[in-house]
Amino acid sequence: MMKDIAGMQIPTYDDVVAAHARIAPHIHRTPVLTSRMLNDLTGAELFFKCENFQKAGAFKARGASNAVFGLSDAGAANGVATHSSGNHGSCLSFAAGRRGIPCTVVMPRTAPQAKKDAVRGYGARVVECEPSTSSREAVFAEVVAETGAEFVHPYNDPRVIAGQGTCARELIDEVEGLDAVIAPIGGGGMVSGTCLTLSALAPSMKIYAAEPEQADDAMRSFRAGHIIADDAPETVADGLKVPLKELTWHFVKTYVTDILTASDPEIVEAMKLIWKRMKIVMEPSSAVPLATILKNPETFRGKRVGVIVTGGNVDLDRLPWMTR
Amino acid sequence: MMKDIAGMQIPTYDDVVAAHARIAPHIHRTPVLTSRMLNDLTGAELFFKCENFQKAGAFKARGASNAVFGLSDAGAANGVATHSSGNHGSCLSFAAGRRGIPCTVVMPRTAPQAKKDAVRGYGARVVECEPSTSSREAVFAEVVAETGAEFVHPYNDPRVIAGQGTCARELIDEVEGLDAVIAPIGGGGMVSGTCLTLSALAPSMKIYAAEPEQADDAMRSFRAGHIIADDAPETVADGLKVPLKELTWHFVKTYVTDILTASDPEIVEAMKLIWKRMKIVMEPSSAVPLATILKNPETFRGKRVGVIVTGGNVDLDRLPWMTR
């Protein structure tokens, strides 16, 4: 079903449909919440797709489950492995645990303790690296050589992107007449899955990506017309530090309407606003879309906007407003 | 419809049904959430009725709306007034704001700033008193003399109790075969409303009240067979400091199965556990039921238990685990 373009295996909407059937027994169909106060504040109608309530606390349970449960028994025999700044690691561990196969996750030693604990809690193994893309890739190569595990990349993988596309499929099934969808962008897995689904089901719907100013490589890539990658940017939105790769860049450059950015203080304010008004726990990365909506009111005013809340795995002892 | 018993106007289940019809346009039908991890931990099946997602962030929007919208135009002309350690004040302000009548709330000067801000945010007036029952009642008498406002007591009021009873009505409509329901107890409004509904619809269902050890006057009253009131107890569960009154005592002594207590550290641990695992923001008072379930596993193991999450209004800058 996948299309081969310039040597890449590009997933199609049929892959999203197949993924949805495959992962349905393992994931939650998450709720869509609204807030009259946030609608009043933004002048838009916002529909929050709450993947913070997803299994393992993040949308990445979708893509990881699709990859793990799509493996043949032979392909699964040596287990799976990945590198991840957090949620993909725990979500792959969750999926591997459900299938009963081994899983190894290479994580920066600086990753939140809660995320390391989550990986180990699902029975997977953590191998630490330095907090840079280069170190992560080097350590990971050793792990794969040692275990023979199947590599499931956090986002540059057609199985993962097809899995993430199930989120937008549920959203537009639940909410009619959306004008736009906005999601955070790090490596671009969720945005790519969203593009894949919406380009098939609702091609006129606008797709926005929201990015921290302090890790704005996707926005600069989008403006420049080619991938720009930074090594080890620092932002409170710790899930969004990784760069685009070939496959996600394909979707971003082809389907994304615009990439908007917000500063770290704006992200923290938006996060507190959602906690306070919507009574949901979500991580800083998930607040970037609301921060950019508040910063660009003219873009969203009067529109019906789907907002993807990507995850809820935050260290409650190290909330960003505690240390400021 | 109310029964007159020993000089008290006791609401009946018909009043709950009437309240539900009256307040339906103004409140949320809140979701019931479950957590496999918390079920595994307790050995029970827990069904969390999430009044933290209620209008104004607490179940008290139900009773306050029933009182406000049940007033005749003449009865509403001078507005409403109350004293409240927090949520009843903001919820009465919310209801008065929706009806467009004035509202005055007497609050302890030590009440969380977030709760004072909420009252003012709904357009009501805050009058401060000392943090004791005696001071609160004295200051309140002055307010009523000055305004002629209709007093809506936070819990010792049949209209309020009938309104709170709509919560258990929704819960047992949504979840079949519950063995028990557990709710926090302060003044006893939610517990009384729960008793009112369940004694009519499911008289064999057990009803537990959960109370902080450091404000355990309801438990001591229950054991002694008469109301015991403390002046100004201190606990992290700041919504549960007030004593029982005649009307709530009637329901507690007649229908409650048992009153269980938990220490402040146990309450904070249960609160963090819910935030971390269920990704919902709820206040310390709402964590008391889970704390007592964890402390009394033999009482709940194997049972289907409705857990009323009473509210989500917490000061994010003063979370209880920040100051320890």
Secondary structure topology:
The structure is a homodimer of 324-residue chains.
Chain A: E1 3-5, E2 8-10, H1 13-23, E3 32-33, H2 36-42, E4 45-50, H3 60-69, H4 73-76, E5 80-83, H5 87-99, E6 103-108, H6 113-121, E7 125-129, H7 133-147, E8 150-151, H8 158-174, E9 180-184, H9 189-201, E10 206-212, H10 217-224, H11 246-255, E11 258-262, H12 264-278, H13 284-295, H14 297-300, E12 304-309
Parallel strand pairs in A: 4-12, 5-6, 5-8, 6-7, 9-10, 9-12, 10-11
Antiparallel strand pairs in A: 1-2, 3-4
Helix pairs in contact in A: 1-3, 1-8, 3-5, 3-8, 5-6, 8-9, 9-11, 12-13
Structure notes:
2 copies of one chain form a homodimer. Chain A is α/β, with parallel strands linked by helices and about 325 residues long. The first copy, chain A, folds into 2 domains: about 5-60 and about 155-320, Rossmann fold (3-Layer(aba) Sandwich); about 60-150, Rossmann fold (3-Layer(aba) Sandwich). Helices cover about 45% and strands about 15% of the residues of chain A. The first copy, chain A, contains 14 helices and 12 strands. Chain A has helices at about 15-25, 35-40, 60-70, 75, 85-100, 115-120, 135-145, 160-175, 190-200, 215-225, 245-255, 265-280, 285-295, 295-300, and strands at about 5, 10, 30-35, 45-50, 80-85, 105-110, 125-130, 150, 180-185, 205-210, 260, 305-310. In chain A, the strands form 3 sheets. A 6-stranded mixed beta sheet of chain A has the order 3-4-12-9-10-11, sandwiched between helices. In chain A, β6 (about 105-110), α6 and β7 form a beta-alpha-beta unit. In chain A, α1 (about 15-25) packs across α3 (about 60-70), α1 crosses α8 and α9 (about 190-200) crosses α11 (about 245-255). The radius of gyration of chain A is 18 Å and the shape is globular. The N and C termini of chain A lie far apart (about 50 Å). In chain A, about 55% of the residues are buried. The mean pLDDT of chain A is about 95. Chains A and B meet through α12 of A and α12 of B.
